[in-house]
């Protein structure tokens, strides 16, 4: 399943290889019209909590701690249904997790893709 899960910016053009396209941000990305997003779903419930997102502030120096805290959030009951839904999608089709974050390798989409693929603790 790992090779079937990818992540990238929502601002990039969609591709037929994307499979299911799911936005995993809590807030809608600036400058993107819903009609132009080419999304299959917007799954806010899998995004980091507002407090965690604000604490992190996309500061790469805080990424390791952000990753640890976000993985803990993903394990809690409040995220379970959304995470299970993503696993189900990835089991049947390629899955592309979308985010507005500029540095996608230091984003919740990267952590989530790693976790769904079974590569995170």
> What structural class is derived from the secondary structure elements?
alpha/beta
CA radius of gyration: 13 Å
Strand line-up of the largest beta sheet: 1-4-2-3
Number of strands: 4
Q: In percent, how helical is the residue content?
A: 25-40%
Largest sheet composition: 4 strands, parallel
Strand content: 5-15%
Concise account of the structure shown:
By secondary structure, the protein is of the alpha/beta class.
Describe the structure in your own words.
With 121 residues, the chain is α/β, with parallel strands linked by helices. The chain contains 4 helices and 4 strands; from the N terminus they run βββαααβα. The chain has helices at residues 50-56, 63-75, 77-92, 108-116; strands at residues 5-9, 20-23, 41-42, 95-99. Strands 1-4-2-3 form a 4-stranded parallel β-sheet, covered by helices on one side. Helix 1 (50-56) packs antiparallel against helix 2 and helix 2 crosses helix 4 (108-116). It is globular, with a radius of gyration of 13 Å. The relative contact order is 0.28.
Provide the fold topology.
Blueprint: E1 5-9, E2 20-23, E3 41-42, H1 50-56, H2 63-75, H3 77-92, E4 95-99, H4 108-116
Parallel strand pairs: 1-4, 2-3, 2-4
Helix pairs in contact: 1-2, 2-4
């Amino acid at each position: 399943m790992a090779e079937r899960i990818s992540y990238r910016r929502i601002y990039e053009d969609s591709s037929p290889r994307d499979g299911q396209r799911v936005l995993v941000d809590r807030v809608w990305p600036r400058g993107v019209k819903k009609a132009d997003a080419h999304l299959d779903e917007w799954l806010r419930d899998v995004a980091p909590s507002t407090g965690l997102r604000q604490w992190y502030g996309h500061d790469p120096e805080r990424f390791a701690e952000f990753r640890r805290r976000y993985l803990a959030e993903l394990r809690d009951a409040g995220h379970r249904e959304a995470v299970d839904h993503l696993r189900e999608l990835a089991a049947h089709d390629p899955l592309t997790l979308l985010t507005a974050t500029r540095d996608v390798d230091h984003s919740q989409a990267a952590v989530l893709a790693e976790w769904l693929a079974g590569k995170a603790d």
